């Protein structure tokens, strides 16, 4: 199937950061750019603090409103990085392969052994897929070009069977 064979997709983009503003959010803008290039509608964009409850408060209502949620930032190992902890309890099924392949690609194409620090994550809830990716522009480009835009239409199709 080609992208044109799938239904239109609505997406939410959430940047997790204590310091970024709409003007300085290069990672979030890069996600949006890739989605727009793939003809995916941006139904929501926001910046949320690195805070468990704040992240859940934004993500949870979107699970019934959009087909795909992409969070960027807060996926490292620092104490303040809680995106994965906030998102994981909201999913029904985890797609471990996303994080595994993301780290492999990061290792071979970009950051070498520092790839083990990435906790990129993907899971589904009902008919929505959630991707949580690092916030750097390099990581966003890698995840969007090599993984998310390549598979998101098929994933959403499968979730709607």
TrEMBL record:
The source's domain of life comes to: Bacteria
Enumerate the spans annotated as MoaB/Mog domain. Answer: 12-155
Q: Does the keyword DNA repair apply?
A: no
Print the keywords alphabetically. Answer: Molybdenum cofactor biosynthesis
Q: Which InterPro entries match?
A: MoaB, MoaB/Mog-like_dom_sf, MoaB/Mog_dom, MoCF_biosynth_CS
Name the job this protein performs.
May be involved in the biosynthesis of molybdopterin.
By what name is this protein known? Molybdenum cofactor biosynthesis protein B
Please tell me the species this chain comes from: Macrococcus hajekii
């Amino acid at each position: 199937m080609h992208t044109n064979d799938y239904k239109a997709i609505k997406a939410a983009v959430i940047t997790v950061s204590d310091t970024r503003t709409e003007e300085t959010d290069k990672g979030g803008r890069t996600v949006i750019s890739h989605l727009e290039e793939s003809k995916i509608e941006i139904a929501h964009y926001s910046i949320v603090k690195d805070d468990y409850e704040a992240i859940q408060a934004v993500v949870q209502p979107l699970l019934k409103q959009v087909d795909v949620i992409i969070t960027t930032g807060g996926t490292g190992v620092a104490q303040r990085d809680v995106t994965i902890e906030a998102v994981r309890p909201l999913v029904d099924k985890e797609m471990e392969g996303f994080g595994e392949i993301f780290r492999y690609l990061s290792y071979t194409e970009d950051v070498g052994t520092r790839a083990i620090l990435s906790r990129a994550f993907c899971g589904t809830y009902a008919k929505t897929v959630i991707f949580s990716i690092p916030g750097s522009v390099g990581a966003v480009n890698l995840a969007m070009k090599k993984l998310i835009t390549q598979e998101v239409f098929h994933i959403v199709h499968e979730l709607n069977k």
